Amino acid sequence: MKRLLDNARNFRHRVAPESETFRRFAAGQTPGTLFISCSDSRVIPALITGAVPGEVFEIRNAGNIITPFDPDHSCAESATIEYGVEVLKVKDIVVCGHSHCGAVGAVANDSDLTSLPSVAQWVSSCRPALAPMLGTPPDDLTFSKYVQRHVVAQLENLRTYPKVRAAVDEGRLNLHGWYYRVDTAEVLELDELNGVFNRN
Ligand SMILES: [Zn+2]
């Protein structure tokens, strides 16, 4: 823990010696991208993308899950999406799933989550989209297909948000699906037209 605190205290010297870089943040933020990824410690959006402070607005949760829009129930994700799209006016939203994801794995493997009731309830929202694939526990290769299907489902859920749908329809917002391999650091991007994740 001490190393993390020491690094945090040295951050301003390490990353941006000119204090002007931070001073301008007092005026606000204008990130162009909302990046939605898992809480997994192996997935670090700024490190992977090379984003600098002020560039990327983030949602991180177990399994990079976006539940469908519900006008009667707000949650951290819905509030952050609303703020990002309506106030910050991000131009892109990325949903980034990853290999070896515990949340998707729990659904794919039908894991016993009796002792983790909050996790059980949270990941259960992934089940409908993955249902057609469930049955035999996946191996490493087929598991990537589960995660990629999961990413597509979260993009579909994003489109249930009126503000997202309106911004997409008006051409001022683009949605993207990524798949990140934690054991190779490889990134695949969804080609929505053909329903495949490509390396280039
Ligand atoms: Zn994960």
UniProtKB/TrEMBL annotation:
Its EC number is 4.2.1.1. Keywords: Lyase, Metal-binding, Zinc. Pfam families: Pro_CA. The keyword Zinc applies. It catalyses: hydrogencarbonate + H(+) = CO2 + H2O. It is an enzyme of class 4 (lyase). Belongs to the beta-class carbonic anhydrase family. Coiled coil: none annotated. SMART domains: Pro_CA. Its cofactor is Zn(2+). This is carbonic anhydrase. It comes from the Bacteria. Catalyzes the reversible hydration of carbon dioxide to form bicarbonate. The keyword Lyase applies.
